Amino acid sequence: MEILTISTKGQIVIPARIRKKYRLKKGEKLIIEDEDGYLKLIPHTDLTTLCGSWPDLDLETIRKEIEEMRKEDRF
Fold first, then answer.
1. Of 28, 43, 58, 72, which residue has the fewest beta carbons closer than 10 angstroms?
2. Is 19 buried (19+), middle (13-18) or exposed (0-12) by CB count in 10 A?
3. Which fold is adopted by the domain 1-44?
4. What are the pLDDT digits (tens) for 44-63?
């Protein structure tokens, strides 16, 4: 368990042990969720970093998938 202190600007420092464990680097973004009285910090993954992970997945395919999901969410 780690104890963090909130600065006057609302900032916290993630301990080095946790940053190393989750490979968090300077400038990376995190998602914060309020769930049943707990705050969860989740690394934000940019889908374009997945390009090349699967042989037939490229940036254009990802964009098309995202556009389709956005269209479905509108209705």
1. 72
2. middle
3. Pemi-like Protein 1; Chain: D (2.10.260)
4. 876 666 666 666 667 777 78
Tell me the domain boundaries of the chain.
Answer: 1-44, 45-75
Judged by DSSP in three states, 35 sits in: strand
Q: Are 30 and 44 in contact (CB under 8 A)?
A: yes
> What pairs with residue 39 in β-bridges?
34
Q: Any bridge partners for residue 43, and if so which?
A: 30
Closest by Cα among 60, 43, 40 to 51: 60
0.70 exceeded by pTM: no
Measured CA distances, 65 to 52, 58, 60 (Å):
16, 11, 9
